[in-house]
Amino acid sequence: MSITSKSQKFKKGTLIFNEGEVSDVAYIIDQGQVEIFIPNGTNDISVSVLEQGQIFGEMGVIDDSPRAASARAKTDCVISLVKKDQLQERIQSSDPVVRLVIRRLLSRVRSNLKLTVGEETHQDLRQSLGFPNHADDSDVVEKIKFEQDLVSALDNEEFVLHFQPIIDLKDDRLCGFEALVRWDSPVRGLVRPDLFLGVAEETSLIVPLGRWILHKACESFHEIRQKYAEVNQEQPDLFMSINVSAKQVSDPEFFKVLDNSIKSFGLQPGDLKLEITESLYAEGNSVTSWIDQCKRIGVLIALDDFGTGYSSLSYLSRMNVDNLKVDRSFVKVLADDPSTQVVVKSIIQMAQGLKKPIIAEGIETEEQKLLLKALGCHFGQGFLFGKPIALRDVIETWIMLEESQKAA
Question: Which of 75, 139, 181, 354 has a CA-to-CA distance to 403 between 20 and 30 Å?
Answer without folding.
Answer: 181
